[in-house]
Structure formats: C-alpha cells, structure tokens
Amino acid sequence: MADRVNRPPLRAVIADDQALVRTGFGMILAADGIEVAAEAADGAQAVAAVRRTRPDVVLMDIRMPQMDGIEATRRILDDGSPDGTRVIILTTYDLDHYVYAALTAGASGFLLKDVTPEHLVAAVRLVKSGDALLAPTITRRLIERFAHRDEPQTALHRDLSGLTPRELEVLRLLATGLSNAELADRLFLSPTTVKTHIGRILSKLDLRDRVQAVVLAYETGLISPRGPNGTGPGTGTGNGTE
Which residues of the chain are under the pLDDT cut of 50? Predict the structure, then answer.
C-alpha cells in the first residue's frame, strides 16, 4: 500500500477540439487520481504538449483541425515514444474508417467518446501497464479492412522466422481477437505462460503492444481475413512455422 501511495500519479494529455470533451474527460480522470498534464485543441498542440509534459497516456481525437489525430500520433511515436507514452484514439463512430490508420500509426487502442467514466479510467490504466486496448469488435474491424483489400497478401515478414512454433500459434490466435484468458483455455496453458509468450513475441518482433502484433499478423499473411468458408479469419499458408 505504501508503494502505491508514494508512486507518482499517472499523467495524461487530452487532445480534442471540443472544450466540453476535454473538460469532461479531465474531470473523470482527476477524480480517479490521474493527473491531466495538458490539454490540446488540435494535433499540433498535442504533439507540442507531449514533448513538453512527457505524459504516460494521450487521449487523442481522430478528427481535429490543423493536424488530425493520426498524424499527431505518428509524430509522437516517431519521437521514440518518450518515457513510454501510449496513445488511445477517441472517436465518435464505431465504424470510423480512420481507426485502422490510427492503429497502424502506433495507437494502443481506441475508445468511443460516449465511453463510461469507469471504462475511460480503466482504459488509461490498462495501456499504461503495457497492455493494449483492443476489443474483439476492433479486431473484427481490422479483419474486415483486410478482407476488402484488392491487392494480394504480402509475403511473410522475415522476422517471423525468429518465432518458435508455439509463439506463431499464439500470434495467430491473438490476431483473431482472443483475450489472454481465452488463449490460455484454447492452448491449455496458464495465463502467466500466455503473457510470457506474448511478451517474447513483442520483444522478438520489436512491437510496442498486441495491437501492432495483430496488424502485423494480417499484413504479413500469417493469418488471412477469411477462413476456409470465407466468413472468418484463418491461418495463412506461409512457411512461418519452419
């Protein structure tokens, strides 16, 4: 308990062009002991605020004037993600076509703006802990995105050859949207062992979190958008298990 009391508060930057959203989210975070280090009304301000305050988490609206949230996210993380800063994308619509672009830019997940206070706080704390906010619904959005691509799948990324057969299996299942608990049940492993496998996968592939792992699994063809019946995800046909 003493360690928790002495630990510095989690710090966040809120970037949204609507003052009401910034104020509301700020009040929710502050009520739970999360410090709002800065607010920003556009992407350029967000980048400057992050460089100035070096927060733990950024709540980033996608659609903002001057510079949108996608470009701001890219610039923040291209700076080397100072002090492990993570970005959560805020959006109004569940079907926002910018979500995929934001995730590939390096965001650790996304939230709808009508999120409950409890879920908002939990999301901020989750990504700060090193996990990723990737709900199964978002995984399905990614699958749909790839399922409608016209271009052929790319070849397996050469770095996948460094994964063990078990790690490849974990990555394939992870990309279908399974949680750690579901992965443990499916593979008859303990949750701790699953977390260890995921940690090794991220380390070997130099990935920030499981969001990037899911994107990579589809981009490399390790898993295909459609399974054998064309309706769900299936494993790729590459030789990554060799």
Answer: 1-4, 82, 151-158, 227-231, 235-242
DSSP 197-230: HHHHHHHHHT-SSHHHHHHHHHHTTSEESS-TTS
Radius of gyration of the chain from its Cα atoms, rounded to whole angstroms? 18
Q: Is-contact 103 133, C-beta < 8 A?
A: no
pLDDT at res. 175: 83
Helix, coil or strand: residue 112? strand
Residues 6+ apart with CB under 8 A from 67: 42, 43, 44, 46, 47
**CA-wise closest residue to 165 among 200, 141, 210:** 200
Q: Give me 220's structure tokens.
A: 């490399």
What phi and psi, each to the nearest 5 degrees, are found at residue 114? -90, 20
Distance CA 5, CA 237 (A): 51
CA–CA distance, 11 with 82 (Å, rounded to integer): 13
> Whole-angstrom Cα distance, residue 64 to residue 44?
10
Strands 35-40 and 86-91: unpaired
Q: Which residues, including other chains, have CB under 8 Å from residue 222's CB and lie 6 or more apart?
A: 156, 160, 168, 171, 172, 175, 216, 235, 236, 238, 240
CB 47 within 8 A of CB 14: no
How long is the chain? 242
What pLDDT does residue 234 have?
Answer: 53
Q: Which residue has the tokens 């770095």?
A: 159
Q: Which residues contact 155 (CB under 8 A, 6 or more apart)?
A: 220, 221, 238
Q: How far apart, in whole angstroms, are the C-alpha atoms of residue 91 and residue 132?
A: 17
